[in-house]
């Protein structure tokens, strides 16, 4: 479930980069994987 | 070619008639002749798998029948069409020959899924269909085909129990292989899987493998399955400090289904008007979104006009034209009513509840998106539907509005209702959600997400996510058009 939420936010972050579906139509699965990693790195806090 | 096969029906033919004229129809020649048997041109195992997958869709499926393949590119004259019918053929096309012959020569398992778009010209009483209708059927057929492929591919795996791998066994001209011209053997080496390899070791035929669990670089959970989304498809005019668009493709269900298509098979149920551009339909169909549930209704497509300031969480609605959306009532069929995952995109909560009631089986997970407009105007209906879903997405302001509670942590730890829900009922729902997927969840916009793990009463709070996305401010989407559906604001 947490992964789904992060993927949702990743997709949203692409969506708001342009109007309508313009950004999503230029999206590759690799882009998603890369941003997922970036997101993960950003929110991870070492104990 | 038969009255009983209607537009949008699926046919898995078992015979072909080759009426092509100028196509190369054999891999052989140049010193090697092969007479491959064509009495049964279709692999029964593959055809069976195709039929089984096709019957899992909502389309009508016909197993068996004769496909006549004409040369084209022109369509038949009426006289030709009548003659073909008198021969007893079932469907007509320009595609399957000579590929069926070549597949036999290559010892490939071969089967066809034919998707009817229209009656041929013989049908004089059938009311003339418009080009638009044919194109729409074509697009819907593309979606159906992709749906069937998704279902059939995992079902095809070696070893092959059919006779296809040995079709050439007794088909080749009887002379020693050493007599075959070397150049021809080399050419065949790339086509055929056995018998003619220059090194003489070719064995076996093509094999089918299961699709990887990774979808184009994304790790897709093995449990991810078909997803049904019901919501709006709209034409939006949006202005932000960074630009504006007029009548661009939008709508909560549009954004959600397009985004989700990167992860799973998506079935869209929504409505558009007759003015909805075909290019938009094609965009969704090309992404593999099943648009058969996208009704084209008489009238204009739903339109939304809005404005954003620098805070993309707050949309100002300038104008809403419901148009065909005013009369929209989603209708689920036997197949969509059993989809295991349901997303109720941002629409009237009464419609969301209606969809939920139409589900033949309780989905494994139901998620819902809503907005301030409904929280304010349809609170009671929203409360009812909220009581039956597992996941809700709202932004910070909407969470406060929904909860009548300024402290989101307390609200998350309590429940997702509006404070009137019976405690025991609420606990049951949360437990049910926990059994399915773990935490019941309240998502609060890009800036914060609050998850609730009911079994431990532990709260998880995510801090503000500044800096992501990098170019967040370059554009935005209106609230109804589902940036929220893909959890953006």
Describe this structure in words.
- The complex is a heterodimer of chains A (47) and B (489).
- Chain A is mainly α and 47 residues long.
- Chain A has one domain (2-43).
- Chain A has helices spanning 2-15, 22-25, 29-43.
- In chain A, α1 crosses α3.
- Chain A is elongated, with a radius of gyration of 12 Å.
- Chain B has 489 residues and is an alpha/beta fold.
- Chain B has two domains: 10-191, Rossmann fold; 218-481, Ribokinase (UDP-N-acetylmuramoyl-L-alanine:D-glutamate ligase, 3-Layer(aba) Sandwich).
- Chain B has helices spanning 44-55, 78-86, 99-105, 131-152, 182-191, 252-260, 278-286, 349-358, 372-377, 379-386, 396-403, 408-414, 423-437, and strands at residues 10-12, 15-19, 61-63, 66-70, 91-93, 114-115, 214-215, 218-219, 227-230, 234-240, 243-250, 266-273, 290-297, 303-308, 315-321, 341-344, 365-369, 391-394, 440-444, 448-453, 458-461.
- In chain B, the strands form five sheets. A nine-stranded mixed β-sheet of chain B has the order 13-12-9-16-17-18-19-20-21, sandwiched between helices. In chain B, strands 11-10-14-15 form a four-stranded mixed β-sheet.
- Mean pLDDT of chain B is 76; it is low at 197-224, 413-421 and 433-489.
- Chain A binds chain B through residues 1-3, 5, 7-9, 11-21, 23-25, 27-30, 32-33, 35, 38-39, 42-43, and chain B through 215-218, 221, 236, 238, 243, 245, 248-250, 254-255, 258-259, 262-263, 283, 312, 391, 393, 437-439, 441, 443, 446, 449, 451, 462-463, 465, 467-469, 471-472, 474-477, 483, 486-489.
What structural keywords apply?
heterodimer, A: 47 residues, mainly alpha, B: 489 residues, alpha/beta, Rossmann fold, UDP-N-acetylmuramoyl-L-alanine:D-glutamate ligase, 9-stranded mixed β-sheet, 21 strands, 27% helix, 21% strand, elongated, disordered C terminus
- State the helix count of chain B: 13
Radius of gyration of chain B: 28 Å
Instruction: Give the CATH topology of the largest domain in chain B.
Output: UDP-N-acetylmuramoyl-L-alanine:D-glutamate ligase
Instruction: Give the beta-strand count of chain A.
Output: 0
> How many separate helices of chain A?
3
Largest interface: A-B, 32 and 47 residues
Overall, the morphology of chain B is elongated
Q: Low-confidence parts of chain A lasting 5 or more residues at pLDDT below 50?
A: none
Strand fraction of chain B equals: 15-25%
Uncertain ranges of chain B: 197-224, 413-421, 433-489
Q: Could you give me the name of the CATH homologous superfamily of the largest domain in chain B?
A: Ribokinase
Oligomer: heterodimer
Helix content, binned percent of chain B = 25-40%
Strand content of chain A: under 5%
Number of strands of chain B: 21
Tell me the Rg of chain A in angstroms. Answer: 12 Å
Topology of chain A as a string of helices (H) and strands (E): HHH
- Major sheet description of chain A: none
